[in-house]
Amino acid sequence: MNYLLIGKPNVGKSSIFNILTSKNNNIVHSDAGTTRDWHKELIKNSSSYIYDTPGVLINENKKIKIINSFFNDNIIKQIDTFIYVVDYNEGFNQIDNFSINQLRKYNKKIMLIINKFDNYKNNPVNNFQKYGIDISFYISCSHNFGFNEITSKIKEDNIETYKSKIDFSVAIFGKPNAGKSTFLNSLVGYKRSLTSPLAGTTSDYVVDLLNFKKKIIKIIDTAGIGKKSNVKKNTINYYSIKKSFENLINVNSAIILIDSNEGLDRQDKRIIKMVSEKSKSLILVFNKFDLITDKTHFKSETLLDIDQTLREIKNIKIFFTSALKKNNVNKIIEYITSNVIDNTYNISTSKLNIWLKNIVKENLHPLIENKRVNFKYAVQVKNKPITIKIFCSYSDKLRSTYKRYLINNFNYHFKILNQKTKLIFSSSKNPYI
User: Fold this and answer.
1) Tens of pLDDT along 209-249?
2) Could you give phi then psi for residue 278, rounded to 5 degrees?
3) Torsions phi, psi of 174, nearest 5?
4) Are both 236 and 190 inside the same structural domain?
5) Cα 329 from chain centroid?
6) CB-CB contact of 104 with 82 (8 Å)
7) pLDDT in tens, 100-112
8) pLDDT of residue 179
9) What domain range includes position 289?
């Protein structure tokens, strides 16, 4: 049993979505129209999905208009019940009445939620029965009132339970207008996310599931990350970017999309650095590659630039693609399935210590306090992300350049691809010797 939230802008749909899913994925803002794309998430303690939609607007000709064409075969087939949300303070009105009557054409169940009933200790003004909906609930998001009744109703409706097992999750990052939404649409096979030649079309967090080779992959399209000076505090875009990075810790892999027309600029490198510090796995995708005339020259110059200026991502897979024309898009998801999802690095302690002994002998760390740094022992403590603990003297005084040297050599020696490698240095007594 799946539900779709619908209603005019700023009636509280995103707040209801966040409370029912306990995910806090959707941005709540005082500006009307914060939700510009539809969202999908499991309802807490349920096998039912709930969708959040943009607000219903009435255009100049007084006809119904819904931002984004979410009423398509891909969505409508999955919806069992519309949850229409109204503002208690507005009372019965013709715009909502017209919208509800339009929904009846889809022959689905309709549930009415009357939000912003903040004086819930008083009896409600009951003129909402004029909408002709049998199932209705008075709630207050600000006071978290009325949600027990809604969840009880959902449990009653939920006769057949099914919960998708998510095997892996991927988040798409990049500058505004790099083509992230087009890339998401190419992956899932239909127009899931809004696209536009204007930068900043995706202003919130868009999620969908992809069933690929018996793997269920959660794909997240994030808001474009503009220059820090261009992102004003307390705006929708500011909260969108903040939420994207807050959720990065829960994502298995990150794809950074780069506009080939603009090349790898300072902002791209800033995004790569920010994402690589938090992500477990990273892949670079140069989009709009079809628009490049001399493709061979572009590839060689790009790879050289990455090698010289982005030392921390030397073990990262790089793709050149066109999301619009779907060139190499499937190859990217195939690569993730074969080389990231199913690839687990478990390195034996003996091999680790042979590597450590040889590499520190080949290139000694500079003396610290006129004494040689003694690298004693190494052991793998985690595989996602790969985490190696190295026991050594002066662990808190090691040079960052030498740490980077060890990481790069480790990745090269053990053929580590697309995985973040973390080295922990400890002066504590080694329990193994």
Assistant:
1) 787 887 888 888 887 776 654 555 555 555 556 666 666 67
2) -115, -25
3) 160, 175
4) yes
5) 18
6) no
7) 988 888 888 999 9
8) 86
9) 168-341
Contact 50, 21 (CB under 8 A): yes
Whether residues 152 and 193 fall in one domain: no
pTM as predicted: 0.58
- Which residues, 6+ apart, have CB-to-CB distance to 264 below 8 Å? 258, 302, 305, 306
Contact 395, 426 (CB under 8 A): yes
CB atoms inside a 10 Å sphere around CB 413: 14
> CB–CB of 23/228 below 8 Å?
no
**Residues 356 and 294 reside in one and the same domain:** no
Note whether residue 163 is domain-resident.
no
CB atoms within 10 A of CB 282: 23
For 304, the token pair is 């050289």
Given a contact cutoff of 8 angstroms between Cβ atoms, the answer to whether 1 and 157 are in contact is yes
